[in-house]
Design goal:
Helix content is about 30%, strand content about 15%. It is of the alpha+beta class and about 250 residues long. The protein has an 8-stranded mixed sheet with strand order 1-8-7-4-5-6-2-3. A hairpin with a 2-residue loop joins strand 2 (about 60) and strand 3 (about 65-70). The longest helix has 29 residues, at about 20-45.
Length: about 250
């Protein structure tokens, strides 16, 4: 069956006037806003999840040699670590990683925005650093830090048989805590700065969020920068935000 034949056989929605369409959209918008509020409430609940202390020491191989789990934070406070499948028993080896993991890597947005929120994203696989470096260059993933698992990290954190994101927090004494975990369809939406931050214990760190007392917060929008302009105060942008009519549309 051709594509045109498939389309012709579809049971399509009714075609309506512009006024009727606008009314239907307004009704759908109510549901969209409910979904947004529910998503925000879920992220707020994540920020109140209990933490699990990471007491074992884990070792990875990186481009510069052996590194610890603490090193993967790159001195930032939060770490989102994705277990991607790239090794000899994965379909596509050695030219490709897992199809689903690769689709996810293609979705990863510019990491500078996460870094501005004291958050690091990294990938980890069983593949060698030599193979990972070649894969990253070939697929255009050079900016994603990607490490080699060398011990039981994947087994201990539920990612030895399936992909998943583990979220970790580093406290003022460099103690590490596991704060959240998603896998399966939970991985589908990952890639944007917001999807990652909404998994973390500190969240987006904006003034509108429902976070526990004492959690860091800054004015909404004002911390945003072009990805090559972080680290610079921008008073003009602050004035733009103050004068704008843009509001948080919950």
């Amino acid at each position: 069956m051709t594509s045109n034949e498939q389309i012709a056989g579809m049971k399509k929605p009714p075609v309506v006037s512009a006024e009727e369409w606008q009314k239907a959209w307004q009704e759908m918008l109510v549901k969209e806003k409910e979904h947004t509020r529910s998503r925000d409430a879920l992220a707020a609940a994540r920020r109140r999840m209990p933490w699990q202390m990471v007491e074992k020491e884990y070792s990875f191989e990186g481009p510069q040699g052996k590194v610890s789990l603490l090193d993967l934070f790159e001195r930032r406070r939060q770490l989102v670590l994705y277990r991607a499948f790239y090794d000899s028993n994965v379909y596509g080896w050695p030219d490709h990683a897992c199809v689903g993991c690769s689709l996810g890597a293609d979705q990863v947005s510019h990491l500078s925005h996460l870094h501005a929120r004291d958050t690091t994203l990294a990938y980890a696989s069983r593949g060698s650093q030599e193979n990972i470096a070649r894969l990253k260059q070939r697929m255009g993933w050079e900016k994603i830090p990607w490490f080699t698992i060398t011990d039981d990290f994947d087994k201990d954190f539920g990612v030895d048989e399936w992909h998943g994101h583990n979220v970790f927090f580093r406290d003022e004494n460099d103690k590490i805590f596991r704060t959240y975990y998603i896998n399966n369809r939970g991985d589908e939406a990952m890639g944007s700065v917001w999807s990652y931050l909404d998994l973390t214990p500190l969240g987006r760190q904006e003034d509108w969020e429902d976070s526990p007392e004492g959690y860091p917060k800054t004015d909404r929008y004002k911390w945003w920068r072009w990805h090559d302009a972080y680290g610079k105060e921008d008073e003009k942008w602050n004035k733009v935000v103050d004068q704008a009519t843009v509001t948080l549309n919950l």
